[in-house]
Design brief:
The chain is globular. The strands form two sheets. It has a seven-stranded parallel sheet, sandwiched between helices. Strands 10-9-8-11-12-13 form a six-stranded parallel sheet, sandwiched between helices. By secondary structure, it is α/β, with parallel strands linked by helices. It is 43% helix and 17% strand. It has two domains: 181 residues, 3-Layer(aba) Sandwich (Rossmann fold); 155 residues, Rossmann fold.
Amino acid sequence: MSKRIIFTVTNELNYDQRMQRIAGSLAAAGYDVSLVGVKKKNSPALAPLPFHQKRIPVWFEKGKLFYFEYNLKLLAWLLFQRAQILCAIDLDTILPVYLASGIKRIVRVYDAHELFCEMKEVVSRPLIYKSWKKIESFCIPRFRIGYTVNEPIARIFEKEYGVQYDVIRNVPKLSESRFSLEKESFLVYQGAVNEGRLFEVLIPAMQYVNMPLHIYGDGNFLEQTRELIRRYRLEDRVQLKGKLPPSELKGITARAKMGFTLFENQGLSNYYSLANRFFDYVHAATPQVAVDFPVYRQLNQDFPVAVLTSATDPVELAASINNLLTDGLLYKQLQENCLKMRQEWNWEKEEKALLAIYQSI
């Protein structure tokens, strides 16, 4: 009988590309995989995928009451499941996985997509930060098996908690990604519309850029983004398109002229981030403007796929955008490097390390 692995998230399952890749790879390798997430009032129907999906309905959809309700319901559900491995995705589901795995005496794994406690929305709120940090410092040393998205985060976990986590980068499948060298006249931002993504700089910068920006996603900074668009009278220049399934978004990103991977330098989660969208743009052969932080600088070193910027001023950011739009030679070089690096940064290579972790358990 194949081993059953249960993954726990707080995300909407239809849009979680990383977990779809991880669960899909393990299911293809013969594991019995279940991915568990949240069912909210407006959750769309689940897309058919080659593994089990379960959504737990909640009354509260954000804030402390959401986390309390969901974690309590998740723990109750886990206690009645038969599984050999439980995997917590990020800190917001780690407690029920720790408790359930301890009670049932089964293997637990931690998958850290980011430094959760160092996200701006956490680190900028002292009481919330203190609470999550207590959970982190208690739980992570008790998760001896784990992996994260890049080396700097793995080193921080090793230094703080003595755990040695592997690195599994969140890169697209080469076999499923789409690209086009012929682009249309619009810019794209895809991903979470959250605090710390520099929308306070990007939106006003669009006053000086003669090309529309399409934003695909939602998050905790969506209303503030709407207000920025209204404040700068950019309703015709910046369009909020909402969330799309990954399969639809791939085609749009492939047609876009340019993408953005921007973060505010507040909190180590941003500083050591490795956003999914960085690789999504590369696979689409869509050059991007990216933040000049260590991980992106290292990736961009040998074969640049992005223009790196440290701009926190709208005029400076607009200058970087316009320079890339008008410098045809630079643009073509970045596209060529995207085509080269998508052959190196792809899930077909990355999943080998993932399978090795679970085969070793």
